[in-house]
């Protein structure tokens, strides 16, 4: 019997989420056959069978969050060994020890963990969604008494427990939920008695009246018109990353505008040359080249902060992330060594990375080691925004729609092609004055493309 464990599929990765289980219990598998599809840090990884055999047991369902080291399934190769038997014996011993500790904790706290019908501990019955909710609310689900069928822990049970309430501590019929199904009368009766005595020693919690219950319940009509979707996969990873970024980084956003008539004319002059090479030439490569020049002159924008050592890390390489909108959410593939590539090379790579992103084929190496991010929302619209920094980077530049506007030049009103930019920066490291000087330099280079070509490496 071979244990298939979830290993680190990428540097620094600690957990993932199962998107699809591609095999069933009792199904034969061959070596290198895909058996799981897992979402890790915005990257979808396909896990394959290490050996050929028959799937005997699958431990996690779709939607479950798994950690590195978890055993995902067992594959029977048709071979048996003393080592396998000894390993099973040690696992059984560990499970019993965990159950004993959980039971002792329950005795001390006056609560009864969910018990199985045999000595030892069994995990609380709960769906993956309820388990995830418990983790988010910092609730130990093994300490929650379930009120659902067969003692299943429900969403309401977890939320009430997190609020310091319990629907199972007063009503006598619920005092032994989780152990009532046990047939081991001696052990179970003993534990029921101890749990009941512990509950009697607890202060009695007043139950809500029928009227209060009705007031607490959501409107039935509203419930029927709701749709609940699981927060999972890439959307979940994006959410976690955004929360981490805004929690750690004090964001400040500076807005400016660019006059791009000269850049538009310069790009038009290059488009025939790009077409000969089958290259789609957008404005983004010009922004990347201007950005790289500014990053070299203002190195704190191409840095990160090591919070553990309280050090500023100034990076001597320029890897520019480009935010790409996909059906699953926003992803940020990275153009490595952007300072060493030509306008045409950058244009080709942008198209290639965007295609991989939209097809869901980005690999981890496509999305790591970024030093600065550009978010180009201009083709969609919008005048300005407050983009969230891609932690551990310290700044992000958003580009907005390009449009004709009335502006004043030499005391006269004229029409110019204008674009707004929004620069969010980490105020721990970058001051507002420095941020304005940084955007001024980018502005200067883009408004005078001949100057950009003159200083570009």
Automatic annotation (TrEMBL):
**A Gene Ontology cellular-component term:** cytoplasm
Which stretches make up the Peripheral subunit-binding (PSBD) domain?
Answer: 125-162
Gene Ontology molecular-function annotations: acetyltransferase activity; lipoic acid binding
The protein, known as: Dihydrolipoamide acetyltransferase component of pyruvate dehydrogenase complex
Under InterPro entries, the record lists:
2-oxoA_DH_lipoyl-BS, 2-oxoacid_DH_actylTfrase, 2-oxoacid_DH_E2_comp, Biotin_lipoyl, CAT-like_dom_sf, E3-bd_dom_sf, PSBD, Single_hybrid_motif
Q: What is its EC number?
A: 2.3.1.-
Which family, according to the similarity comment? Belongs to the 2-oxoacid dehydrogenase family.
Q: Which organism is it from?
A: Brevibacillus fluminis
